[in-house]
Amino acid sequence: MIEMTNIQKAYGGRLAVRNLNLNIAAGEVYGFLGPNGAGKSTTLRMIVGLTLPDSGTIRLNGIDPTVDGMNTKRIVGFIPDRPFLYDKLTAVEFLRFIGGLYQMESGDLGKRSSELLELFKLSDRHHELVASFSHGMKQRLIMAAALLHRPKILVVDEPMVGLDPQGARLVKNIFRSAAHDHGMAVFMSTHSLDTAEEVCDRVGILLEGQLQTEGRVEDLRNTVAGDTDLESIFLRLTGGVDGTEATEEALGLL
User: Fold this and answer.
1) pTM for the structure as a whole
2) Tens digit of each residue's pLDDT (9 = 90 or more) over 128-142
3) The domain that contains 7 carries what CATH number?
4) Is residue 224 a contact partner of residue 212, using CB atoms and an 8 Å limit?
């Protein structure tokens, strides 16, 4: 569903993404992990067509977004880490606006909007201005908008930011259902290792634009000897320090 082959992207002479190869199947939740500046957001932006790779090829359901951007946008939903919403629109008006961009028929748009507002627990606020929404409510609304046109591929950048535990649990369940029950390919960048371990079928760990390893969490545990959780695997592969060392170092400065 998502195929990236030998992708490279540089900014100001610095390679942000180096020879990246990824293949995410329909019905799969793939977690993309890495420290700040590793190249995760750049990768996501290339998939959704917000920036172009310097070299390599991308295929989304067999379509090259650099050649046929319009048709790839029809099959992709994108949830950015800093979404923009129109504060002077109500939730219903915002979804109506998004549906118009995708040229959805009015009957289907109304039905789909109602279903998603119910799913994301926003039905009781659907006629209120977005300006009155909390950050978590805005995050849930942008997720509803990304799913409005029934995409085949969902690309998500830091989905849990600003969500309370109840909202986070809801979103995790929705991502799993989108992939496992509806055949969507979900590509999710996250700093939450617990979320990745709980939700993702496979994970990839990126460092300085290069993919260090990928696979099921259980398989990575076997690959990285002695580590029992994703956090330990992540820290070992990215050169981080474990929690005990970090705490002792910090306490030594007090």
Assistant:
1) 0.87
2) 999 999 988 999 999
3) 3.40.50.300
4) no
